[in-house]
Fold this sequence. Notes:
By secondary structure, the chain is of the alpha+beta class. The protein has helices at residues 69-81, 103-118, 125-133, 139-144, 179-185, 204-211, 219-225, 228-238, 261-274, and strands at 3-21, 27-45, 51-55, 88-92, 148-151, 156-159, 167-172, 244-247, 254-258, 279-286, 291-292. The chain contains nine helices and eleven strands. The chain starts with a strand and ends with a strand. Adenosine-5'-triphosphate binds at residues 62-63, 68-70, 91, 97-105, 107, 138, 179, 249-250.
Amino acid sequence: MTAVTVFAPAKINLYLHVTGRRADGYHLVDSLVAFADIGDRVTARHAPALSLQVAGSEADGIPGGTDNLVWRAAQLLAEHAGIAAAAALHIEKNLPVASGIGGGSSDAAAVLRALCRLWRLEIEVATIARLGARLGADIPVCVHGGAAWVGGIGEQIEPAIALPEAGIVLANPRRRLPTATVFKARTGPFSDAAERFLPIPTKAVELAAALAMCRNDLTVAALTLVPEIGNVLAALRQLPGSLLARMSGSGATCFALFADRESAERARAELAAAEPGWWSAAGALIAVNPIGD
Ligand code: ATP
């Protein structure tokens, strides 16, 4: 095997309740995390030393070298395995940076999985997730890959319901929003964890109805920092076939759910024509992180 490519999907917080804060400042969350078939692609090849190249439409401003989560994840894995961190890494960056859809975390999870295969390491997924957690709270759920209920600061992961078929449109106003800044701006009381959806929704419209009972508790704080998020949410709600529109993570990316991929693609074309300055993409929710060579 000379090269391994792993898809790094956008992480979507279908809802996000902030349930408390630990003494060390980390916030506690309750979230249903899903993944979309819109994402980056991370490739690892055999090479005598560690190197990293970033290309793609969203590559601008992505840190190269040791500041990149992918680089740090590779070093951590090599250290854990007791081997040299030798690989040529490449990221095809399609997800906008610092936008609430976990691009960096998903890239880091993807490189951990890619290098396990390239270096022929047999490490349990839970161990890889724990390694990833040392670099970022969102990495463990990305390592697991499928939709999951996430608790604690991101380390409590319970595989979720198989999500129904659903189309998704992602959009943001091209304003970067660092996660820590949004958590700092959040005020007010903490929320309770949401009730688990039982029975499991089998249609997108039922999933949207269940999600309507929940919130993204970071929306108000994000709106004060980037008011354009309000325009994005309004535009997503008005798209034909839109079942639910909400912000993901700490923003500024928002999503809308649709009955299927085709409806999402049609709606996205309409949105892109009306708002050419925004970043947007259409696809479908995925149940499991697809891994390919
Ligand atoms: P989350 O939803 O997990 O809060 P996010 O989508 O808001 O994350 P990312 O795109 O993951 O944010 O980027 C967060 C920070 O990580 C940025 O400041 C960026 O410079 C840094 N970073 C390091 N490596 C990467 C990478 N491979 N891709 C994107 N950002 C990276």
